[in-house]
Amino acid sequence: MKRAASKSSGFSAEEKAAMREAVRERAKKGGDGEADLLEKVAKMPPADRAMATRLHAIMKKHAPHLQPKTWYGMPAYANGEKIICYFQNASKFKARYGTLGFSDKAMLDDGAMWPVAYALMKLGPAEEAKIVALVKKASAAS
Fold first, then answer.
1. What's this model's pTM, rounded to 2 decimal places?
2. 122 located within any domain
3. In a domain, 3, yes or no
4. Burial label, 57 (beta-carbon count in 10 A; 0-12, 13-18, 19+)
5. Is 54 exposed, middle or buried (0-12, 13-18, 19+ CB in 10 A)?
6. Rounded to whole angstroms, what are the CA distances from 38 to 53, 99, 109, 125, 136?
7. How far is the C-alpha of 78 from the C-alpha of 90, rounded, in Å?
8. Using one digit for the tens of pLDDT, what is the confidence trace for 45-60?
9. In a domain, 68, yes or no
10. Which domain holds residue 95?
11. Measured between alpha carbons, how far is 89 from 95 in angstroms, rounded to an integer?
């Protein structure tokens, strides 16, 4: 009996593009990480661009020692080569919301289970206050 061939969907076009971005970023080594980040932000749709721009201002003010860069084509902030946090804009993977994510290097540990990624639908004063607290905790640990 012949088995029907299963068709694997593999990676989406967006995922493949992100992987190509990561390869370019690794090959580049050096350069101006902030310029690269701002270039990516400038290419985002207006709503994503506004959120990324505000997040960048928060990072510069509250975690100035973290270096802006891109990571898989997304705005990110690092301590040396270690990514501490990143912003995945909603349009990158055709998602309903943007995501502010933190790596394990951010040390946001809180017991045996804690969130490391946050959905962002809007960025008002309440959300900014939460982000500032998270960024301060993450940057103090890094």
1. 0.85
2. yes
3. no
4. exposed
5. middle
6. 8, 18, 30, 23, 22
7. 21
8. 999 999 999 999 999 9
9. yes
10. 13-141
11. 8
